[in-house]
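Researcher: I'd like a structural prediction for the single chain below. Treat it as a standalone chain; there are no partners to consider.
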Amino acid sequence: MKQKNKLKKGTFMGNVLVVMFSQVLVKLLGLIYRIYLTNRKGFGDEGNALNAGYQIYALLLLLSSIGIPSAVAKLVSEKVTLGDYKGAQKIFKVSLFTVGCAGLIGSLILFFGSGFIANQLLHISATQYTLMAVSPSVFLVAISSVIRGYFNGRNTMKPTAHSQSLEQVLKTVFTIVFVEIAAAVTSTNTVAMAVAANLATTFSVISSFIYIYIYFKTRKKFMDDEMQSQTEYIEETKKSILKKVLRVAIPLSLTSIIISLNRTIDTITVPNSLMKIMSEDVATRIYGIFIGKVDTLAGLPLSLNIAFSVALIPEIASLKASKEMNLIKDRISLSFVLTILIAFPCAFGLSVFAAPILNLIFPNARDGAEILSAYSFIVIFTMLVQTLNATLQGLGNMRTPVYSLIIGLIIKTILNIILVPNPTFGIYGAIIASIVCYAVVVIFDIVVLKRMVNLNIDFIKCFIKPLLASLIMSGVSYLIYKGLLFIIPARLSTIIALCAAVLVYAISVVVFKILSKEEYLALPKGEKIYNLVSKFTRKFKI
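Model: Treating it as a single chain, here is the predicted structure.
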């Protein structure tokens, strides 16, 4: 019974909250070490540019896992819902072996092919050593992700959340320690410090793998008991299971690969295109700002929303297996609305407070406010893509996310090639290309989803009201910021104004009555939240 409690299933929004907290922690800690690296003498924007090879690592990681972790979550969820624990376990074992082999190949390619990638693809020779340093992580992350997918499929998100949090905590600590050692030994050599930063990633991944493996072993007895208690079981060959996994995994993988390719295309095209209109040093520095600060900050809000994509796939797959279509519509509707409510204020806040935020976080490297202000609006579209793709995949529609992203990728590539080398646009050409790319994907996905589940999207509720609330938030908080500048330091003014923005936005959401009673009650502690909202609306007669 004790073991059973440890595997107790969570509610949908409870799982979302667990993953969301973990992702926020991961992103905040990631920001801490990014702040440290960017402000560290001898590293800065040039050091960030040397980490361009990280996108190649991310792409190889996706290729090696072939989308199997997400497929495991979906297929295991369906099996567990039907009480087929032996089938769920066999899916896990076949997937683990497949990913283990592919991950090993990925690590070897990254290590032995680092010279070719650095010199022929990235045209930044020093990235060869950073790629070699991070190469073992491909194998270990691939194996860990299958174990995480297995527990996600069992509607238990804590192993994923805890292992990812541990990895990021150690990555932050190791990065600072390793970089300082490299700086002391090499007299702040930028290449050596970049290699040390990537070694920190590898050591943190090793630690996370050890944790998730131990977690699995301690729960194995209960899972074995589950299988022994199962009386009926249809035997499947490993070959048939692998085909089933790949039938789900390949489209899922293509979706992730295409998303990764979006950034890889920037890595390959943007620096080279910028060098056509400016010197190599200036182009490298601007690209370093783009990937080191702007992309990092714009990626922070995604940590709040990625929880939906992690929880939605197994949740909707489980509901579909039990044929609960009304609950599926409720989950989709709630996830869509909450995604919008998170995305709009984050985008507007980053845009309006771009300069103050950079001054707050990167006081020794504050350049890039205009770039961040423009790029911030991609947050809206990337968040929606996360939620919509997870919804479609949970419903079993694996092709639409692939097709829509391919179309977006083609558009982005063409726009990058045309706009970035144009002196009128420069780096802003890449921003325009990215926003157009994801906007097209969002429209494509929504059209298909509405046809599949007859989902009605209230345009005023989902877009107009959140937009108005975000505009009010931005205007009020920026006026507060400007007023505070006369009496307190700028960085403190920024912190207070951002806190005020959260409060103003929350009040605006209540005033505009964006969420219904049912949607409030679906949230963790929803009854308490709804009672608080009700008291507020009655008191102020809203």
